[in-house]
Write a structure and sequence with these properties.
Radius of gyration: 22 Å
Pfam families: tRNA-synt_2c (PF01411)
Family: Belongs to the class-II aminoacyl-tRNA synthetase family.
CATH class of the largest domain: Alpha Beta
Protein name: Alanine--tRNA ligase
CATH topology of the largest domain: BirA Bifunctional Protein, domain 2
Organism: Rhizobium miluonense
Keywords: Aminoacyl-tRNA synthetase, ATP-binding, Ligase, Nucleotide-binding, Protein biosynthesis, RNA-binding, tRNA-binding
């Protein structure tokens, strides 16, 4: 098993597997199936388990296409690659535990630069999903591409128009078609610049649907995400990735969880010191701004007041 932490409450008797271990094995099997499928098509494949970003536009890698942005924009480059990329999206923090948002996840990616067509990508993914025994309930297409792209599905899947079927990372954008199963979006095919292919399917969502693997609760998701960040080489700190890591450690503590790692122990002790300092100093500085408290003493006033209200 890749991780072991105290908030994994499924540890059984000695000599048996945990539910978490079984989930990792099943998820790994799905990723291996995808790799084998890509290689059978003659497509180069890489696995990336670090959430370190490939450029300075994000704190963590948020999409499998991030490292390929220069190739999308290079009209002289022609080729196709596939990968699995560990991703982390802090924008999903408040959604974790709902069964569809995972905070960090592994994206199954397919990227073609002026080689595959949208029709080729649709055929590829319907075939791969078929190897998993999965048939999408429906797909969505932007109305501007409805007439052109509908025939590409050849009646295999129901089609629903959706004017939100566009995607952009700020520098690369295009229309897309999205795949749905059991009311959940499982992946999409983007047509960047009208000449390229950018596909991303979430392995955890596929695993949940295909294998019936139950999603982690919020606490397990937080613990797993912390360990993914740590394994990517980051330490708790006051800036950027270190600050995010510290925030997640603090969140675990606030909701009553524990994590068997020195960073968690250190953060709990740090929070205790900060609370003591805040209680000691707050009456001396009643008019100071939250920014002053944070910059001068490293104290998040809103959080301190929230904890005191509990």
């Amino acid at each position: 098993m890749r991780l072991q932490f105290a908030c994994d409450t499924t540890i059984l008797a000695a000599g048996t597997h945990t539910t978490k271990e079984v989930a990792y094995v099943i998820a790994g099997r799905l990723i291996q199936q995808y790799q084998d499928f890509c290689l059978s098509k003659g497509i180069d494949f890489t696995r990336i388990e670090s959430v370190r970003p490939h450029d300075n536009t994000t704190l963590f890698c948020s999409a499998g296409m991030q490292q390929y942005k220069p190739l999308f924009s290079d009209p002289s480059y022609i080729g196709t690659v596939a990968n699995t990329q560990a991703c982390l999206r802090m924008g999903d923090l408040d959604e974790i535990g709902d069964g569809t948002h995972f905070l960090h996840f592994t994206m199954l990616g397919l990227f073609s630069f002026r080689e595959m067509t949208v029709g080729d990508a649709i055929d590829f993914w319907i075939e791969f999903l078929g190897t998993l025994g999965l048939i999408p309930d429906h797909v969505t297409i932007h109305p501007d591409r409805l007439e052109e792209w509908t025939p590409l599905y050849r009646g295999r899947v129901a089609i629903v128009p959706d004017d939100e079927c566009t995607w952009s990372d700020g520098s690369v954008s295009g229309y897309c078609t999205e795949f749905y199963k059991d009311g959940i979006e499982i992946g999409n095919i983007v047509n960047p610049l009208g000449t390229c292919i950018d596909v991303g399917f979430g392995s955890e969502r596929l695993d949940m649907i295909v294998n019936g693997t139950p999603p982690d609760d919020a606490l397990a998701t937080l613990c797993d995400t912390v360990m993914r960040i740590v394994e990517s080489g980051y330490r708790p700190g006051n800036k950027e990735q270190g600050y995010v890591l510290r925030k997640l450690l603090r969140r675990i503590h606030v909701i009553g969880g524990t994590l068997d790692h020195p960073y968690f122990t250190q953060e709990v002790e740090r929070q205790q010191r900060l609370r003591s300092r805040y209680r000691r100093l707050r009456d001396r500085h009643p008019d100071m701004s939250p920014e002053w408290w944070f910059d001068t003493h490293g104290i998040d006033v809103a959080e301190m007041r929230e904890r005191e209200a509990e």
